[in-house]
């Protein structure tokens, strides 16, 4: 009898808790709805209509799903390695060769570059895509050159589409004037602008719909998973389909390895109509530097992207393991436009929510609800991973990356960077520059010219260090200037397997 009573009590408690949680959820949704309506009321009618359709409707759906989620996004026990045939080696794709009519394939393609990020982490104002990375060329210059070269070489018409954010749109559009006479059509569209929400109250921190003053901090672009909705909202999805485009190649604009690959394109175009591959994710082998990168798993009979933010704390070390999860997502994606339209119309693209906590300058804790573009892989038919060479992943996130791409390790041809044939090993050296090199301006001031790095394996630089002209670095080089000291590497110096520390000043006389 006692036993029965205990069970009944537990059941009632669970029921009451569920009912309480449901009421709380409903309360949060009602409060959010009221706050969003109040924000819309601060705009004129035309602006309010645009914000509602382009931003707030999508945000409300995301917020609703955020409130529904209980516990971790994945059940660790259900995670399996992807089946052998779901991740194809690049060589197998390449062995099919190229079609007779490459132009016909290219004419069904558009290139989308994710261009929402600022250069703030590298000490630059404005869009990151406008930072000079090689011979005075910016990321955007190199992208335009690559596509123009394709269009000219194959007499094709591949357009470039830039997904800007409210942070980058104005500056990017000003710069686009300079490409008017290039053989590449350029389209732009804006990703959504969502309200940051107070971590405690779960309500927007914005006081009005505008972006002026303190209110600028109240908004954020909701991650690149927003590409699906904002692409459709912009009208570009229908426009490109109307022009006969079948696929888009999506990548981060700061990944200099993400060029149009004709072999992958041919693989997509040569599939039978009933087995059309609707989504390809390029993955590459994980190294110690990539342990935080998202990986592909098999989950509930679907290929799925697993991001570190979704991993339960107890399994983070396992996720970072190079032995269990051998590959990671480069964010180079090939996506079918008709499939994208179908999924958007059905509203069946259930992208996992990434909750990104931030602390604003005044100390206020907020959260941003974001999604990742690659997470949609589970929604597309016949989705595939292709294990590509590391050369297709060449992101420039830090000044250490910038040093590599500016050096003689790479040669530049028609906007594309390729590893120099003079380098004996195809691997990239490991470069770690200290905090004195973080900002691009500081970085450039510390090199009279970029050193010869063809035979470099590892470089660590810490403290107040400068490099003279025509310095050569080979093997493992470690240069450490202690606090208060300065090291000037003299012009013409050749350092091979050396540790330099202490103080070395070279003064003009």
Automatic annotation (TrEMBL):
Pathway: Glycan biosynthesis; glycogen biosynthesis
Source organism superkingdom: Eukaryota
Coiled coil: 29-56
Subunit description: Homooctamer.
GO-annotated molecular function: UTP:glucose-1-phosphate uridylyltransferase activity
Pfam family, one: UDPGP
Catalyzed chemical reaction(s): alpha-D-glucose 1-phosphate + UTP + H(+) = UDP-alpha-D-glucose + diphosphate
Binding positions for substrate per the UniProt entry: 224
UniProt: UTP binding residues: 128, 191, 223, 254, 397
Similarity section: Belongs to the UDPGP type 1 family.
Role, per record: UTP--glucose-1-phosphate uridylyltransferase catalyzing the conversion of glucose-1-phosphate into UDP-glucose, a crucial precursor for the production of glycogen.
UniProt xrefs under InterPro entries: Nucleotide-diphossugar_trans (IPR029044), UDPGP_fam (IPR002618), UDPGP_trans (IPR016267)
Enzyme Commission identifier(s): 2.7.7.9
Protein name: UTP--glucose-1-phosphate uridylyltransferase
Biological process, per Gene Ontology: glycogen biosynthetic process; UDP-alpha-D-glucose metabolic process
Lineage: Eukaryota, Metazoa, Chordata, Craniata, Vertebrata
Presence of keyword Isomerase: no
Alphabetically ordered keywords of this record: Coiled coil, Nucleotidyltransferase, Transferase
